[in-house]
Amino acid sequence: MGVIVQEHTGLFHLQSSGMSYMIQIVDGYPLHVYWGGRLKHRESLADLLIHTPANAGLDRLPQEYPQYGSGDFRNPAYQSELEDGTRVTELKYEGYRIIKGKPALSGLPSVYTEDDAEAETLELELKDAYSGLQVVLSYTIYADRNVIARSARLNNAGEHNLRLRRALSASVDFLGKDDLEIMYLSGAWAREANIIRKPIHQGETRIDSKRGMSSHQFNPFTALVTPETTEDHGDAYGFSLVYSGSFEAGAEVDSFGSTRVSIGLNSFDFAWQLSPGESFQTPEAVMVYSGQGLGDMSRTYHRLYRTRLCRGKYRDEERPILVNNWEATYFDFNADKLVSIAEEGVKLGIELFVLDDGWFGKRDSDNSSLGDWYEDRRKLPDGLADVARRVNEQGLKFGLWFEPEMISPDSELYRRHPDWCLHVPGRRRSEARWQLVLDYTRQEVRDYIYDSLSAIFTSVPVAYVKWDMNRALTEIGSVALPPERQAETAHRYVLGLYELLDRITTAFPDILFESCSSGGGRFDPGMLHYMPQTWTSDNTDAVERLKIQYGTSLVYPVSAIGAHVSAVPNHQVGRITPLEFRGDVAMSGNFGYELDLTKFTEEEKETVKRQVSAYKEIRGLVQKGDLYRLKSPFEGNESAWMIVSENQEEAIAYYFQVMAVPNAPKRSLRLAGLNPELEYEVQSGHSGETSIHGGDRLMQLGLPLAYEQKDYESGWFRLRAVTH
Ligand code: DGJ
Q1: 21 Cβ inside 6 Å of ligand 1
Q2: Fewer CB atoms inside 10 Å of the end CB: C or N, the chain?
Q3: Which atom in ligand 1 lies closest to the alpha carbon of residue 517?
């Protein structure tokens, strides 16, 4: 296992416990020969190629990092412009290197190893002799995961300037496959993570973000599947980009029946100056193969992202149950109101109080004060530290909201530094939510934000931070960059953000950070590297959340999915759902409340107490178990999923039916992921009733479900293996 090299045939075989990926050097070109289920090692697979560069030209060849200009007319992985204005380069193989473990990517988030024995990294060195452009392709193969992490480093080893016009992270050619389907997650604000699946034919299917953020519209993820692939069966090839800015991903079916998938930084509006001696590192693409369907592909991502992408103390710690005041008060609060919510929270067992937007500057609505990170004494006359102290005295930890990448034109900061936002001199500065975006390419801007936040973290007992980002980037330009580097601004912004996140999370390791971007506008692996959880959507309606959380789980682990119970009628859709239903949906994520607890009736408070104490018992499993999706909310009235512990001795299954069904047929829920040899005690989370069933029966015949004649029915079941 690991990287097996057959030097005399030029074959590189990356082999994990369940997967093989093979590259063969033919006539100096690194060609892609295989990706799929594990193969025994062979000396060569060149016979699979049929065509060679000599007999067919490049257009028919499956390539590892395709170029443009010498006969391959499909989408290239990179393009570089020389000083003479020409754009043709030709990469040829120069050599390789194998590294134990996985090197970090300079300035960028990435998956990692904790022990060198977990993975091996192959670096292939390619060079364009004419320009001196050198490209190092990096492939990390994990021993026990069906994962390859890919990226490219482009070095200018020549004597003249180069200008990169495109630099993708990965490109994979599926030779002779033109009958595949593409999947991705699309959406909008409050409608994130819709699962799209459709056949692809000759031509291109492309998703992207030009917003400077990964976006609500498309998640930086795509997958290819066969038409037969289901949750439990068939091939699935996932491509997930560890990046939080503008990206592109897509599949191109060519005229010879092959499909090329590529993913990376958006080439639109991108260019990068590379002087002699300089390097450019692309973000990382994490590629997952499963021969056992989408569920297995997702679980591979979940385990990797939960344990080898997220970092810090909270990666492994159980996450606190929180109450957030946003939908409870919006901007209208004072210290006593906040403390009263915390006071009620502690009686119900809640552990963390989060003070959301509106505590700083003079922020009575969303039209001012971003950048002025000091408390508003009109609302908090005794200061932030006093509110935090009072919350702590109740027995709750204190958390705080920031939107550190933004600046309001109506702010002290803007009056002092009107040039600190991204803008193009002489042009209109497009506001969104009455705010502009700080120019994070600039060190002094990042330093100001670092100093402002750390001043608070060192004077107020902040245990949690919600790092929000509520608008896309426009007029993407920086007055700090020369004309020839303006097209670097969007990527430099993200690099600046990562530098700051790294600095701040390293300096304050005890703070739990949650990222947010008007909900799921930046729910991506890049942010998860610094912050182990994300606010999934501003849409808190439980019915809507079924789809949003289900879709998000295609790539992201439950431990990353923030899910809160909010008030009814719901603030986004006006729907009234029972508290139990709202609780069950939220309890299958990272749990909390987002409402005014003081307004609950005694009966509702009892329900909340039960939910909170139940979640405390199950959260270890919810946050760290393996997710099995059972029924898709995209396909009907019912949704179900379950989470199983690694040793299969514990599980929790959730079931939801949105609308009542007249004269309903008898129902049962087929479970998954259990040990067929074990007997399980199944306990209903609502009634507490128990029964005992074999794992085989639960998976083959299912768990019988009682039926209540009502809309918004839900239930959850706790399963524990019975020991004799
Ligand atoms: C958008 C977030 O998604 C909300 O939860 C809330 O924090 C608001 N911003 C505050 O402005």
Answers
A1: no
A2: C
A3: 3
